[in-house]
Amino acid sequence: MIVAAARPLPPWLKQRLPDNSTGTMLSLLREFSLHTVCEEAGCPNIADCFCNKEFTFLILGNTCTRHCLFCKVEKSARTVHSPDGGNLKQVGAGMSRFVRSLNLRYVVITSVTRDDLSDGGAAFFTHCVKEIKEYNKGVKIEVLIPDFQGSLSAIKVVSESGACVLGHNIETVPRLYHYLRPQADYARSLEVLKKAKDFKESILTKSSLILGMGEDEAEVIQAMRDLRKHRCDILVLGQYLRPSVRHYPVKEFITPERFQEYRRMALSLGFRSVLSTPKARSSYKAEEIYNEAVRCTI
């Protein structure tokens, strides 16, 4: 167990506090039997996102079979319950009604990693996308997927689900994987992004790096190059914030100026859209950076 004193936040990381509008949205999500990774991961942007009606739905339950040291989501060595209690149709229908009730134009669907499921939950992703689009034809859907243990059939089915963006986060540089992400594999994650494009050329692929966990600048730049080599279109860079004293400590607070330098470097490497700010998370401002990436292709 990691226990160390938390470092004080620099002034540029001050966040808006949750207010009544956040509570209203949380109540509405419960009414439709929906959950978000914003809640489960303790995202500091939750008040900002909910106020702007930006949601990242969490499917496949709330317990992850991986043990990444920086993540707040509940973990279990073996998650044996059915996805979302077996209520697949209920969850998909709830998302569809929620999207319709708020007239949402863009939503993100993500999940915990479910290595205990034969397809990693790929069929559930596809069901939710199709359920939403059946009654909300104009809505854009981004899927943020686990690596499915590299299963080509699982990657294929989600790539062809009707989502406009397929995201898969490499999270950190390869040197830190063995400690921070012991059940993940850097090369495998890169291949997930490449295979998604192979299966559906028109889909935009997206990945994210969390900075401030001990990486150096050369490693960040090499990771960006690796992502471009594997045909990643959209990049998000954000500051790691420790969820609790039991999690991996922050090694460095990256300044806003350095984030902007990384953005310029990433754009020079050919990414269609880059969000690089201390407050960024993989699904933060998702519609905005999707639209920027689409404009880049015109």
- What letter string, H or E per element, gives the SSE order? HHHEEEHEHEHEHHEHEHEH
Strand arrangement, major sheet: 1-4-5-6-7-8-9
Total of helices: 11
Unreliable parts = none
Radius of gyration, in Å, reads 18 Å
The CATH topology label is: TIM Barrel
Task: Outline the biggest β-sheet.
Answer: 7 strands, parallel
Shape: globular
Structural class: alpha/beta
CATH class: Alpha Beta
Could you explain the architecture of this structure?
This protein has 298 residues and is α/β, with parallel strands linked by helices. The chain has one domain: Alpha-Beta Barrel (TIM Barrel). The protein contains 11 helices and 9 strands. Strands 1-4-5-6-7-8-9 form a 7-stranded parallel sheet, with helices on both faces. Helix 4 runs parallel beside helix 5, helix 5 (122-135) runs parallel beside helix 6 (152-159) and helix 9 (217-229) packs parallel to helix 10 (256-269). The longest helix has 15 residues, at 88-102. The relative contact order is 0.13.
